[in-house]
Structure formats: C-alpha cells, structure tokens
Amino acid sequence: MAKKRRRFGSVRRLPSGRFQASFIGPNGGRQYAPDTFRTRTDADRWLVGVEADINKGAWLDDKLGRETFGNYASAYLRDSPNIGDRWEETCRRNMRLHMTELLDLPLIAITPPVVRSWYAKALLGRGGKTSIGQSYRFLRAVMNSAKRDGAIVINPCQIPGAGTDKAKERGIAAPGQIVDLVEAITPRYRAAVLLAAWCGLRRGEVCGLRTDDVDLVDGVVWVRKNRVELLESPKKYDKDPKTDAGRRPVSVPPHVMPYLRDHMKEWAGRDRFFIGKDGQPMRGNAVY
Fold this sequence. Notes:
One of its GO terms (molecular function) is DNA binding. Helix content is 41%, strand content 11%. It has helices at residues 40-56, 62-65, 69-79, 85-98, 100-103, 112-124, 129-148, 175-184, 190-199, 203-207, 257-266, and strands at residues 10-13, 19-24, 30-32, 214-215, 220-223, 226-229, 236-239, 248-251. It is elongated.
C-alpha cells in the first residue's frame, strides 16, 4: 500500500532515532518543533495541532517568541519608519536606566504579572514618573508589534491608566514679565524670546528659522523647518514639520518688528536667522 502523502509539514528521522517535525509558517520561514519526538505518530500529532492553530489564527512563531525583549526592541527602534531620532534616543536611554530586568527575557516570558511587577518596582525607583510612563508606553508598543508578528498571543501591558502622560500645567508669563526678561537677557537673543512669547514658535522652530523666512516688509515669519538636537549625541539637523499645518506663515505683532529688524542688522547669519557667537546655528538651550 502506497504511503499517504503529507499535506502539511514534514517529519524526518534523526540519527538518534527520534523524529523532528517542521513546517512552513505564515511568515514564509521554516519552523521546527521545540522538541524532538519518540515516534513519527507523535510528530504527526504535533503538526496536526499546529495546522489547526494556523487555521484558527492562533499560531505563534516559536522562534521569534524566544527572542529576547532587548534584541527585539532594538530591532523595532531601528526598523520602524515612524520613529524619530529623539524618541529613539529616549527609548534607548529608558531601556538602559529603567528596563534592565526585561531586556534578557524572551518575549513569551513577559506576561501581565511580569509587567505589573516591573512597573511597580520602577515607580518606586529613582526614575521620574515621566520616564517610567515613557518606558511603559514603549514596552506596550513593542509588545503590540510582537503580537502582530505572531510572537505572542496577547499584549501583556494591561495596567489601567499606566503610561498616561499627565504633564503639569505650565505657567504663562505675563506681558510685564516678558518685558523684564527681554531687557535682562543678552540683546542677540531678544528676538528669539519675543518670537516664542508673542508668535507661539516652538524651540525647534525658532532655531530652524532661515534668514529668508523672515519677511520684514510684510511682518511675517515663515515656519518651514524644525531644528532637532539630541541629548546624548552631537547629532543635529533640520527636519520638516510633522504635519502640513506645522508649515505655516506667522504674523508678527508690530511691537516685535523693531527687534527683528535690529536682529537682522546686527546678528543674523547669511543663511540662518539665529546663530551663536561662533557662527554656528543657535543651540536650543541658549534661550530655553
């Protein structure tokens, strides 16, 4: 009687006499059973179970599930197109400072109890709540990716309210305080402070202004670039605003215009409107 052809997976006998089962997973890669089997029938039964899981959408990539969180998270930061340099730097710093006990754990070993334990200890540690919240949101994002990749069944980050960013309300300077500040600071930085105070420009937008972006005739400043500076790296560069709305013209109040004219005459660079004494682009911490 002819041997029945297998329709899913394969089984081969090893030199030890035991049997190894494997199959082509939904990700296109060959997957092997985590253990060998005493009989071919046992291997066949394992493959039947795997095929059923795939058909139900419950299949897991066993090899990927055994990858450590540290390696997977690093690859996630490296390969995700929507992650900027600032957020990547923040996440890698938080991994080093607040997530060390998770880094060597396989993805499948990071369960809800493990996450709850880590989060509770992190809150009691020396890290600030902002950094711990960032770490939790990053962990949740990485585990969401692992779930989509078929490494885990559910995302273990299930703590209600954890990672919520509740920034403290910041005080707003009164007009008189702005006047006092402008009179007290170095004259070359007055225009930058006034653009932030009266025109609502962010730090990166102020530092990213080009000389051509400042229209002294019509009293308009064009926001076209955002200056990015990393905290733990000398890397600095200009980037486009995140949205089309971020690229915009901003009307300058009449009482601010004299300061822009003075700045253009005395301190503006040939290319950049704000430069330091060394002629390089002004650093964000010069006025913030």
